[in-house]
Amino acid sequence: MRFLLTEMDVHVTVKLNPTLLGREAVDGLLHDVLGYDEVRTRPQDFAKDLQWEQALEITDRLSELARSRGRTFQVKFSNTLVVENHRPFFPASEAVMYLSGEPLHVITLNLVEKYRRARPEVPISFSAGVDARNYADCTALGFTPITTCTDLLRPGGYGRLPRYAENLEARMRALGVRRLGDYVVKAAGQGEAAMERVIADPALRSSLVGSLRSEAVDLLGVLTGAGRADLYGGIVRAAALANTPVLVEKATRDPRYRAEANRKPPRKIGSRLWLFDCINCDKCVPVCPNDANFVYETTVLRREYEVYRYEKGAVRPVPAGLFEVKKQHQIANFQDFCNECGNCDTFCPEDGGPYVEKPRFFGSLEAWKAWPARDGFFAARADSIDAIWARIRGVEYHLEVDRTLDRGLFTDGTLQLEVRHSERRVVSASAREGAAEGRELDFAAYLNMALAVDGVLDTRRANPVNAPYL
Known about the structure:
Layout: H1 2-6, E1 12-16, H2 23-33, H3 43-48, H4 52-69, E2 73-77, E3 81-84, E4 96-99, H5 101-118, E5 124-126, H6 135-140, H7 161-175, H8 180-187, H9 191-198, H10 202-213, H11 219-225, H12 232-253, H13 259-262, E6 293-297, E7 301-311, E8 314-325, E9 329-334, H14 343-347, H15 354-357, E10 360-361, H16 365-369, E11 376-382, E12 385-392, E13 395-402, E14 407-411, E15 415-420, E16 425-431, E17 440-442, H17 443-456
Parallel strand pairs: 1-2, 2-5, 9-10
Antiparallel strand pairs: 3-4, 6-9, 7-8, 7-17, 11-12, 12-13, 13-14, 14-15, 15-16
């Protein structure tokens, strides 16, 4: 932080953990107040994190350094809360999981109140369970900036954001204010007390109170008229501090943050996802915050398939099973947009996770090659040639389709099939020199790739894969 302030000469914000509130206080809020009895904190996480006195020492040291440099030091509350992983949703190999959303909102607000009692002069940025319903209260606490994450992982994604501004505007209109500073002063009924702390002149204070009580508040206008516009920021800051215990108590007592209001486990129906077909609810598409999941269409197909085995100098088909795709409507994932947050799995009624089981398309061949341990596809179009690279159960394949000739060349690098692509029918089979006896090429892999490449490169429905060719 010192480097940023001195060498880079920039303002600095330090993001802190909710463990600063102390384990006893956190558990009291989680269990006794909010009712999240199943959420278990771990003593070692509180012991190894930054301690309260250390946080205050860092605040003082960096605040003084920032002032000497003409820069600002502020803190951000907060990171997610690390808790014990004791549920089957995440792998047992993961020791911890991270709490966010409604309970974190209450915990972090209580931490804000504690911090403001100790260091009221330090600006605060806030990010913990912010949504459209509490955004106006967060604004009344003088937080800048206010950021949101969990709420955007819910259905609607970024489309939920306009409601934040709409709700704040409605609150401001109801209070008769047009300026955010005036809103902070009036929002929680602490404005007159804030003025008592800042304004020494009784006449000026009386004028400000009169404006505050009116239906058209203009505190800055009153101060400007009196030649004291410089006092406006101090009044707003004092009001934000005075609002803190009021609004923290309001949130702590609000039933919407309690466990009984938020215990809605994902409904699973007992079936499992695979590369193709699902119940087609499409819930995974709007809940992705990055638009990584998308819809494409393919052809319905049911046919017996073979593996092609190299034996005694020839490649021969061997019956292997039944390949079936029952639906045209399919789901895929664009890896370049996906940060594997797992939100689509949370909302998916089937097991497995769309971002894991559905076709994972990379945005470039280089990106596909850079993930050798991960199954996925890269598809590209050049003139009349469609090409797709695939890694399926760890085996790499390549398919090149000449749409003009209706010819596909499918290979794993050793064995190759020439295919009448529209008919999914093998025309010839060959092997490179030196092919090992018993080497097999799975025709089901071709069928997977053929359906995928035909679907995602079909420009009648836009998606992240075919976008360059639209």
